[in-house]
């Protein structure tokens, strides 16, 4: 009850609306998530190991490989990757958005403030969202 009150207070302070429990759950998939540094292997190598072990998707950005798995395959995929001498950065069950919403500067600024305030609460473990922000907007926010 204390945590719900604190979360409600953060939303009210930021002029945001708190939905009922489970109201936005349909917008996310519950998946296993692994990350490892790109220096751990090439795209072809990581793809082969991960997909053979049961992963559903592998994505890369500038620095890391992101591997998504069905929840029940998370530790099997993790073990397969570690078995090939790779070091996993993180392994967890996560909520991944099915679709994202692109934000402009004002909305991004407001949302980042809300997320920061929620993350500062003692009882907050994770904050999941479905937004997308262009690099140009991120530069303006910095």
Descriptive notes:
It is a single chain. Helix 2 crosses helix 3. Helix content is 39%, strand content 24%. It is built from five helices and six strands, in the order αβαββαββαβα. The termini are far apart. It is globular. It is of the alpha+beta class and 142 residues long. It has a four-stranded antiparallel β-sheet, with helices on one face. Strands 5-6 form a two-stranded parallel ribbon. The model has no long low-confidence stretch (mean pLDDT 94).
Chain-wise SSE layout:
Elements: H1 2-13, E1 28-37, H2 43-53, E2 57-60, E3 64-69, H3 74-83, E4 90-97, E5 101-103, H4 105-120, E6 131-133, H5 135-141
Parallel strand pairs: 5-6
Antiparallel strand pairs: 1-3, 1-4, 2-3
Helix pairs in contact: 2-3
- Per the principal axes of the C-alpha atoms, what is the gross shape? globular
- Series of secondary-structure elements, N-terminal to C-terminal: HEHEEHEEHEH
Distance between the termini: 36 Å
Approximate strand percentage: 15-25%
* Rg from Cα: 18 Å
- Biggest β-sheet: strands ordered side by side in the sheet: 2-3-1-4
- Main sheet: strands, sense, barrel: 4 strands, antiparallel
Please give the number of β-strands: 6
- Percentage of residues assigned to helices: 25-40%
Helix-strand category: alpha+beta
Regions with little confidence, pLDDT below 50 for 5+ residues? none
Number of continuous helical runs: 5
Could you tell me the mean pLDDT?
94
């Amino acid at each position: 009850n204390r945590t719900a009150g604190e979360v409600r207070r953060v939303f009210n302070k930021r002029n945001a609306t708190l939905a009922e429990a489970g109201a936005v759950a349909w917008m996310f998939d519950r998946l296993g998530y692994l990350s490892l540094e790109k220096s751990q292997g090439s795209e072809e190598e990581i793809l082969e190991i991960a997909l053979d072990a049961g992963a559903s998707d592998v994505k890369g950005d500038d620095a890391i490989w992101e591997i998504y798995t069905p929840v029940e395959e998370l530790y099997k995929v993790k073990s397969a990757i570690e078995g090939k001498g790779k070091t996993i950065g993180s392994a967890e069950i996560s909520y991944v958005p099915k679709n994202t919403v692109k934000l402009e500067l004002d909305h991004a600024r407001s949302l980042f403030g809300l997320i920061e305030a929620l993350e500062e609460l003692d009882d907050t473990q994770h904050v999941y969202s479905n937004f997308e922000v262009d690099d140009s907007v991120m530069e303006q926010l910095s």
